[in-house]
Amino acid sequence: MSKQTLSFQAEVAQLLHLVTHSLYSNPDIFLRELVSNASDACDKLRFEALNNAALFEDAPNLEVRVAFDREARTVTITDNGIGMSAQEAIDHLGTIAKSGTKDFMSRLSGDQKQDAQLIGQFGVGFYSGFIVADKIIVESRRAGLPAAEGVRWTSGGTGDFEVETIERPARGTSVILHLRDDASDYLDRWKLKSIIGKYSDHISLPILMQKEEWDAEKSEQVLKDEWEAVNSANALWARSKKEVSDEQYAEFYRNLSYDSQAPLAWSHNRVEGSTEYTQLLYIPAKAPHDLWNRDRKAGIKLYVRRVFIMDEAEALMPSYLRWVKGVVDSADLPLNVSRELLQESRDVKAIREGNTRRVLAMLEDLAKKDGVPAATEGADGVTDVVSEEEKAAAARDAGKYTAFYAEFGAVLKEGLGEDFANRDKIARLLRFASTQADGLTALADYKARMKEGQQAIYYITADNRAAARNSPQLEVFRKKGIEVLLMTDRVDEWALSFLTEFDGTPLQSVAKGAVDLGSLQDEEEKKAAEAAAETFKPVLERLKESLKDKAKDVRVTSRLVDSPACLVVEDGDYSTQLARMLKQAGQPAPEVRPILEVNAGHALVKKLEGSAHFDDLAHILFDQALLAEGGLPDDPAAYVKRVNALLA
Ligand SMILES: Nc1ncnc2c1ncn2[C@@H]1O[C@H](COP(=O)(O)OP(=O)(O)OP(=O)(O)O)[C@@H](O)[C@H]1O
């Protein structure tokens, strides 16, 4: 192929403009990105060579070399990985294929500072070379192609790039960066080596640099022909915990996740037994923006005996833990395992269960340490001996669970419906707003506060906390001082339908079924309610008749104190709120006909009997109950007309 000039895809041009014009806060990351690409290229070669060993040619030892040339002002990153054909260079370096970067582009605001921060979070791979270079030359030959089919790709990082065929005996890729005038710092062995140590130490291949020696004659450092590894070249997860510092764990996480924030917690274990594997799992501090996409693949990379097999191995984590990041390295799976095969493997099932247990254990641990460390003096007046170290550790973890829950609590609830085996553990990890506690409360804490004689854990679901708190259904609970949990997450009602009891106590929605406060209601109240219901019977019959198209039933209730009426549904029915939500989301929702409950002691209800406007009042009562819980009358205009007629 003779020299060709091609244009970058519009998005690439836009991205390059941003990379080169933004104040880039941390230029060092270019090296991390390019070394990471080089290492990926070696992983790909190793993977393809599983079925075609000839691809190794005469260079089976995979490695990355980082070199620099002070005269030519270049830094070169070379790998002997899979390489690129000419077409691949055009496709991969001229367009943006990966969804992460596309997504990043769509979130650009135009504000330079903000956008520069965003780049930091996402990392823009190859293009980050243009942070320090005003020209990049990529020379490559794909494994398996003849030396005559090498490719040279050249670009100044503006609108276009050139490609031409070259002779290249060496398999793999060299990325040659021609440094900008202000990037001379990188023409320094110590500088490059320290960046590699900081960001790329975990890479499992050797990263080589030339040795340097003091030349007395020239009185300067000169590079020798001898190369040495400047990283540990040992996959981080394959090392023992003692050998890995917190900073290294955090940096490895950054590499896996592109998350600029440090993880909240991690767990690194070698699991032995009938299925052997190593797991290194991280709990992120921040939810990704696409957390709610259930098709989102799990953030687990799968390796088999250190050989990279695949990203996003969704079979290794249940869907409700899809936000966990990490690595699993299996000792048992075959190297040629495919996604389909993973779904069926018994080993994979064991790994998934092991991962789930581990994540839940990490969360339990964070939850336990969440509160400010309690006073250490026991009831017997004896003070526990707590070391300074323990105190510091407790203080470090305080508040982490609350932070975690704010980000991931709602998705964790999906586990109630998805992971029956761990339902109790998950239930223990849930937190809810409540009528009687500040902040969020655990079900166990609710139980500990239950009144004597209280037989259920009460909750209400609503669109938001204010609506939940002011809901008429809560009136009698408020009057009796009984705590009610306020559930306002969209998944709550669905999730709670899988949790009928907690630790032996049933959960009961206060908007479902007849309210039965059991022994919390005294005999007198019960009798009064029964008597009211009896005398009210004729009015009830008329109400039922008037509202027969709207209400499944009409009955007298003791759950109301200040409001005239409210709507409830039967146990097992969708709540009107859930039905409304499904409808709004365009999902099929069953037609729920609620039950109208009336407060026989309320002035408005008393007025019904003998009213000349009975039918209008009945409809108003129903529509107002609907409004009170955030719904809308079927026929708002008719409602307004009726109210106006009465007001006139
Ligand atoms: N050293 C290399 N050897 C072979 N192919 C490469 C090399 N560097 C880049 N590529 C190709 O160019 C593509 C784009 O690289 P880029 O760094 O922009 O994104 P990425 O590597 O896919 O994503 P990320 O950097 O987020 O992991 C890669 O997917 C790969 O196909």
UniProtKB/TrEMBL annotation:
Subcellular location: Cytoplasm
A: annotated segments: 1-339
Region C, residue ranges: 581-648
SUPFAM superfamilies assigned: ATPase domain of HSP90 chaperone/DNA topoisomerase II/histidine kinase, HSP90 C-terminal domain, Ribosomal protein S5 domain 2-like
Keyword Cytoplasm: yes
CDD domains referenced in this protein's UniProt entry, alphabetically: HATPase_Hsp90-like
InterPro entries: HATPase_C_sf (IPR036890), HSP90_C (IPR037196), Hsp90_fam (IPR001404), Hsp90_N (IPR020575), Ribosomal_Su5_D2-typ_SF (IPR020568)
Name of one Pfam family that matches: HATPase_c_3
Annotated keywords: ATP-binding, Chaperone, Cytoplasm, Nucleotide-binding, Stress response
Major location category of this protein: cytoplasm
HAMAP family recorded: HSP90
Primary role: Molecular chaperone. Has ATPase activity.
Family listed: Belongs to the heat shock protein 90 family.
Quaternary structure (record): Homodimer.
Name the UniProt record assigns to this protein: Chaperone protein HtpG
Gene name linked to the record: htpG
